[in-house]
Amino acid sequence: MNEQPRPARALTRRGFIQTSTLAATGAVAAISAVTQAAAAPATDNQASSTAATLPCGRIGKASISRLLLGGNLIGGWMHARDLKYSGALFRAYVTEQKLMETLHLAEQNGINTVFETGADYVQRYNREFRGHLQIIPHIEVNPGQSDLALSDHIKQQVDTGAVALYVWGVSADRLVQTGAVDRIRKAVEMAKAHGLPIGVGGHSLLVPMACEKNQVPCDFYVKTLHSDNYPSATPKPLRKEFIWLDGGEGWYDNMWCINPEETIAFMKTVSKPWLAFKVLAAGAIYPREAFPYAFKNGADFIAVGMFDFQIKENCELAAKVVRLVQTRERPCPA
After folding, report:
1. How many domains does the chain have?
2. Has residue 7 been placed in a domain?
3. Which of 71, 140, 167, 220 has the most CB within a 10 Å radius?
C-alpha cells in the first residue's frame, strides 16, 4: 500500500505566489489507537518530507495518491447544512489565484490527483505552472440520454486529460433507484472503450451492491463513508435510502452515508479498489477522526475537499494514517 509518488516540481512562474460504530465491535480499540497515533503532532522531519512519503496506489495503470483533492471546493460547491452565507463566503475567499495556489500546495504536499470537478483549473495549472496534477472527472448518465449524447459526454471528459473516469454518484443513485442498472453498465462499457479505468460512484450502498450482483464491469467504486457520530447526523429512525435525493424529515444537507456499518461489512466482500468520499461528512467530523475511520475500515483512497490552509496538515495526517493501517480486515487491492 506504499508506492511512492514522484516529487512535485517547484512552482517558478514569476510573481505567482508572494507568499482527513465499526462493523465489528472488536475493531473499536484498533481504530482508537490509530486515531490517537495519527493525531500526534508531526516532527519537523516528518512535516518537511510529506510530499515524499504520502503513499500512492494504482487504479488501472494510474498511480494515485491515497489522499485526493476533492473537487467541490474547486468547482464552487459547498455542503453547509443550513448556513446561508457560506456560498458567498467561499466565492469571496477562493479567487482564481487562490485556486491556483491551492493546487500548487496540494502537489507540493504529495497529492497528485484532483477528484470529480475542476478539470479546467487543473489544465491551466499544469500548463502555466509546469504542474503534473491528474484529474478523475465524473460522467453524468441520465435515463433519457441518447447513446450518442452519452458517448459525446464521455469523450469530452476523456479529453480533459483524465487518468480515470467514474459514473457520478448522483447519476448512479438515481439509476439504481429507478431500476436502470443496465444504463450504468452501458456507460461503463462505453467509457472502457477509451482505455481508461472506469468506476461507479454512489451515496447509496445499493449502488455497489447492484453493480456486483449484475456484474457491471467497472474497475473501482466511489462510495461515501463516514461515521454517524456527529450532532447534525440524521437520526436513525428518519434515515431512508436516497434521502439526499428526495429530502424529507431529518435531512438538512448533512448526511451521505446512512449505514456506515453495513457499508464497511459489504465492502469487505468486494475486491475492487474503493475510493471513499464525504469522509468528513462535509466538515462535521475532524480529519483526525475521519481519516483513520475511512482507511482502517477499508477505503483504499479518500477524496477530501480542502482549503489551502488545510492541505499540509491533512497530507501529513493521511501519510501517517496509511502507515499505521497496513493490516486491516479488508485487503488492499490497489
Report:
1. 1
2. no
3. 167
Nearest-angstrom CA–CA distance, 315 and 298: 19
Give mean pLDDT, residues 51-64: 89
Give the Cα separation of 8 and 224 in Å (integer). 29
Q: Is there a domain that residue 58 lies in?
A: yes
Please report the DSSP string for 92-129 in residue order.
Answer: HH--HHHHHHHHHHHHHTT--EEEES-HHHHHHHHHHH
Q: Report the half-sphere exposure of 252 (CA within 13 A, side-chain side).
A: 12
Residue 217 CA to residue 141 CA, distance in Å, equals 16
Contacts of 306 (CB under 8 A, 6+ apart): 69, 70, 73, 102, 106, 314
Question: What CATH number has the domain bearing residue 93?
Answer: 3.20.20.100
pLDDT at residue 143 greater than cutoff 90: no
Which residue range is the domain that position 161 belongs to? 25-309+320-324
The dihedral formed by the CA atoms of 301, 307, 308 and 311, expressed in degrees to the nearest 10: -30
Q: What count of residues does the chain have?
A: 334
**In angstroms, rounded to a whole number, what is the distance separating the alpha carbons of residues 167 and 183?**
10
With respect to residue 46, please indicate whether it lies within any of the assigned structural domains.
yes
For residue range 189-201, list pLDDT tens digits in order.
Answer: 999 999 999 999 9
| Span 41-57, average pLDDT | 62
Cell of 109: 504536499
Bridge-based pairing state of the strands 274-277 and 220-224: parallel
In a domain, residue 207? The reply is yes
> Nearest CA to 203 among 231, 175, 164?
175
Measured distance CA(148)–CA(66) in Å, rounded? 35
